[in-house]
Amino acid sequence: MRLDATDLGKGAPVVLLHGFPLDRSIWASRPAGPFRWILPDLRGHGASPVAETATMEEQARDVIELLDRLGIERAVVGGHSMGGYVLLALLRLAPERVAGAVLVTSRAAADSEEARRAREISALRVLKEGPAFLAEAMVARFFTAGPEPEAAAAVRKLILHTKPEGIAAALRGMAQRADSTALLGTIKVPTLVVVGSGDQIVPAAEGEAMAKAIPGAKLAVFERSGHLPPLEEPDRFRAVLGAFLHSVRWTR
Ligand code: MLT
Fold this sequence. Notes:
Bound molecules: D-malate
Distance between the termini: 28 Å
Number of helices: 10
Radius of gyration: 17 Å
Strand content: 15-25%
Order of helices and strands: EEEHEHEHHHHHEHEHH
Helix content: 40-55%
Mean pLDDT: 96
């Protein structure tokens, strides 16, 4: 599928994949610097088309198609939460396209049976009622210790604007995703793992274990963040991502 994407700046390419059910606007806190930023909306989100299905592999193929379309052979790829699941699928399908990996409040494990059932209930409900209930539930869980009102309002608006069919497809796609734990030890590119100490969706301990399992991975713990460090601690996020990107070599 052809993803709608922002392509701005000149330099080494960096692709950032947003989480569920958000869009590219969460990456406003990217660092300045000599980089070419590719910021897509994933299928069913933002300005990209909705598809009936949205498995992590299909979404990884969307990213490969985007790289091909833009003539980019290798990029550093970052993913927030669901975007991180897509990144792990990309590392499985086409590791040669990834020069470095940034996993932001994401996880390698697959869903439990209980989590799968809960996703299906949410998918059916969102198709019937629209995303308002999900927006309230997610905003309450995204942030630690009471969100900044501005960030919460922006996230609520994003979710309310996401099409129910896109949300349902992503929920079902996440429920089907493979366990990537065994992949972690095979990742050969520089990797940064970002965790939020107060994350209520992906506990920090899971991210920390993921960082330990990836050879040479750097870990950045955001003490004052929940699930959304790029919005909760934007200045620190900008600095940490910038330092990591400056340490990566894009050529093999
Ligand atoms: C996300 O932030 O992308 C999702 O909440 C992740 C998930 O539900 O597993």
